[in-house]
Write a structure and sequence with these properties.
alpha+beta, 8-stranded mixed sheet, 22% helix
Length: 237
């Protein structure tokens, strides 16, 4: 997997670890503690460093083998390339200086293998049970700071991560087929637009109900979810 990806407007950095005090952790905590960036996160906003550590422990690559099934995790920090003469650079002099006057952290794109901890979906909205032994199922997630909204950065970075994943077939060993799913709330039109621009196909709508969760500024026990999918490697069964 590429450690760094460049697009015309972005620099994406693969995150393998994020210890407290590291630059990577500072990026993640800035994102996780921002109310608007975490508006659609089922984990909510981090109110402490410990909150960020807890959430990211389940998202970043694990350090050792716990004896269970292998977990596949791909996490990229997204930075926009900043022109030193631009308004963004002038408004954020400290941020651009810390990044050598070239980039500004704006978000995160992550792919994590689906396991028992993920939302269980009916077969018509995901892979059939017969495919699970030969096809690895991943779930897409992303978050962006408000400074990165409305500019197409989410679409650009998700497409870049997909391309990097397709260029690294050995990363997915022993699987030769990889399927990516994404779950988007009906009330999140910005992410619905991103899905339409990244090759993700809508599989259908799922009406979720369960224990109350704090989402989009309120407690809810039910949500209408749009389910998307894409065969990243290997095609359909």
């Amino acid at each position: 997997m590429n450690s760094v990806i460049f697009t015309p407007r972005l620099k994406l950095t693969l995150i393998m670890d994020a210890e407290r005090g590291s630059q990577e952790f500072e990026w993640l905590h800035e994102l996780r503690s921002n109310e608007k960036a975490t508006w659609w996160s089922i984990h909510g906003r981090s109110t402490s460093i410990e909150d960020t550590e807890r959430v990211m422990k389940g998202a970043l690559p694990s350090k050792g083998d716990d004896g269970g099934a292998k977990t596949y995790r791909v996490v990229y920090a997204v930075h926009m390339v900043v022109d030193p003469t631009s308004d963004t650079a002038k408004e954020n002099p400290e941020s651009t200086q810390q990044a050598n006057n070239t980039t500004r952290f704006i978000g995160l794109v992550a792919l994590t293998s689906v396991d028992a901890g993920n939302l269980a979906l009916p077969e018509d909205l995901t892979l059939p049970a017969t495919a699970t032994t030969t096809t690895l199922s991943m779930e897409l997630g992303y978050q962006f700071l408000p400074i990165g909204w409305g500019k197409g950065y989410a679409t650009e970075s998700v497409n870049a991560v997909f391309e990097a994943c397709m260029r690294a077939p050995s990363f997915w060993t022993p699987f030769s087929k990889v399927y990516v799913r994404a779950i988007v709330n009906r009330e999140n039109p910005a992410s619905l637009r991103v899905m339409s621009k990244t090759g993700m196909m809508e599989r259908g709508v799922y009406e979720w109900s369960g224990k109350p969760i704090f989402l989009a500024g309120e407690w809810t026990e039910r949500s209408t979810l749009h389910i998307f999918g894409l065969h990243l490697l290997g095609g359909e069964e």
